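Quick illustration, no need to memorize.
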Amino acid sequence: MEQVEVVVAHRDCATLRVGDVFLKVDGDQARSDIEVEAMARAPVPTPEVLWRTPPALALAAVPGAALGRLGSPSTASSAAWAAAGAMVRRLHDAPVPPWPGKGLGDIAARLDEECEWLVGSGTLPADLVARNREVAEAALRPWTPVFAHGDLQLSHVFVEDDEVTGVIDWTEAGPGDALFDLAVLTLGQEDRLDDVVAGYGADVDLDVIRGWWSLRSLVAIRWLVEHGFDPGAPGCEIDVLRARM
C-alpha cells in the first residue's frame, strides 16, 4: 500500500503525494484552469496531467530533484543552474498567454499595503521596510510582457544530470515581467544568479532583480505568517530583506 504524503496544505489548496502521483485540491477552479492551460502551452518540461475531476487535479511526478529549497544552499551544479536559466529563456520566448496578467498599478498598491501592515503590526522594523521599499522601486517600471511562470521558486524546478526535467506549480502563469521569474528563481540564492543569467543568454538589469527580491519578500510575509510558514527562518524572506541593509 502506498503511503499518503501531505506536500503542502493551507486554506487555498492542498497537495498530496501517493507514490508517483500528486493530487492537487484547489477550491479556485479558475486558478486550476490556468495551471492546466499553461502547462499545455509551455515549451518546457511539465508534469503530465493524469486526470482532472474538479476540484481535484492528478499530476504525474517529474523525474529528478528540485534545484533546492529556500533557506538552504543549493547543492545543484553550476551547469544545472545554467540549464534552468536556458529553460526560462525558452519559456519567455514563447507566445504570451491570452489571459490577463498582474498590472503594475496593482503590484504597487499591494506593495504599499503590505509595507504598511509590516510596520503597523510590528512584524518588521520601519527602517528595514523603508530600505527595501526603496530597493523595490527599481522593479516598478514598465515591462514588455512575456510568458511568465509567475512563481518560479527553485523548489519548482527539477533537474537531473544537469538538465531540467520538469517545472511544476503553474497556477500563477500568464503575461508578466521576465525579470520577476529570474528573481524568484534566485531568491535567497544570490550566488547562483550569474549561472542563471549565463544560461538565460540575455542582458539582465541586476538592480531590477534586486528590486524584485525585495518586493517579493515584502509582499509575501503576511501570507506566509497567516498560513503557518516561517519567513524568519534562516535564509528565507526576512534574511533576504536584511541583506539589502
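The two ends are 51 Å apart (CA to CA).
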